[in-house]
What we know:
Layout: H1 8-11, E1 17-18, H2 27-34, H3 49-52, H4 62-69, E2 73-81, E3 93-102, E4 108-111, H5 113-116, E5 121-125, E6 131-140, E7 145-150, E8 161-162, E9 173-178, E10 186-200, E11 206-213, E12 225-227, E13 232-240, E14 253-257, H6 258-271, E15 277-278, E16 281-286, H7 288-294, E17 301-307, H8 312-315, E18 323-327, E19 330-334, E20 338-342, E21 345-346, H9 350-358, E22 365-372, E23 375-382, E24 384-385
Parallel strand pairs: 8-13
Antiparallel strand pairs: 1-13, 2-3, 2-5, 3-4, 4-7, 5-6, 6-7, 9-10, 9-12, 10-11, 11-14, 12-13, 13-14, 15-24, 16-17, 17-20, 18-19, 20-21, 20-22, 22-23
Amino acid sequence: MRRDRALGAAAALLVAGVLGGVAALVGASALGELGRPTTIREVVDEGARSSVAFRRGVGLTAAEVYRRTASGVVQVEATGPVAADPFDPFPQRERSLGSGFVIDKAGHIVTNYHVVQGADVVNVSFSNDESVRARIVGADPSTDLAVLKVNTPSRGLTPLALGRSGGVQVGDQVVAIGNPFGYERSMTGGIVSAIGRVLQAPNNLAIDNAIQTDAPINPGNSGGPLLNTRAEVIGVNTQITTRSANEGNVGVGFAVPVDTVKTVAAQIIRHGKVEHAYLGIGATPITPDIARLFRLPVARGLLVDRVEPESGAADAGVRPGTREVILEGESWRLGGDIVVAADGTPVTSVERLRAVVARKRPGDKLKLELVRGDKRLAVTVELGRAPTTPAQ
């Protein structure tokens, strides 16, 4: 997929692969594999025993976290048509497996968008081996999240507690529960390796403030919970980075932060969809060294290198750079506005600006403080609605 250039230079540093389902099983060959009897049992990953052993006296043990939450984790099986010849009398079907978890007694389940993308039939399996049909309430490609709903008695549902990803710190101990390669409710453990990562969503937009972990997650873990030592969900496991397309976990996994999950899930349950505010600029962060080299009027801020036509930024008169300069292989577009603050918040990174915009809704106003040449000015932008896919 082509990267959204609006992510800026900072976001371009990260390349991550979407976990996806366990496998795409298509046509007659798939029928042969599925026809074989398979036994799947509940396991704790033996290779992760050392990392799952939490420090004594720090919250719950890994075993206690598992006992409290495993029954709230589900396996998601999604099937849908494969794009093929419309005149084919034997249309093929694609099947994938992922994970999810219950968030309320009404039967709502959170999973990844890419797990159910294109599916017309979704089944959910619980810890008691009960499998029920699920309805897709709504999905948000911009955050790779989806909400399902099952009609089952509330007494059989175990909602997981949602924590706060804003308080997560590097070094915090975590466990991941999911269905890697179809092994139901497997648990692995590790630590938070980094916070504030930027991921690429299925529609090429940016997912901010992602949590990086070394807890082993693999295909099939997609949509499952990342939990802290209080048995609270702090993220939804969604991507891994590997050295090659056929390689499994190498200790670099990522989760969508639960603060984002709570906001998105609430909108999907209430409205069936999510609307994201849209500013409509592409920008690159500057540093004091770059400012001195190019003789810029400020040492910190965002160089505006693109303004989308008919966007709120365009209507407000924000100006992009007009002169391209190549420095050590990197392109800089000079001569345009420099954004130094948004709604009074200094912005020194693309992520900081996106965080301010993310708190808004389409139609809200955003005040930008700009430096244009040797002048400072303020403009008010009426934010638009983010497109399904970014402008290229």
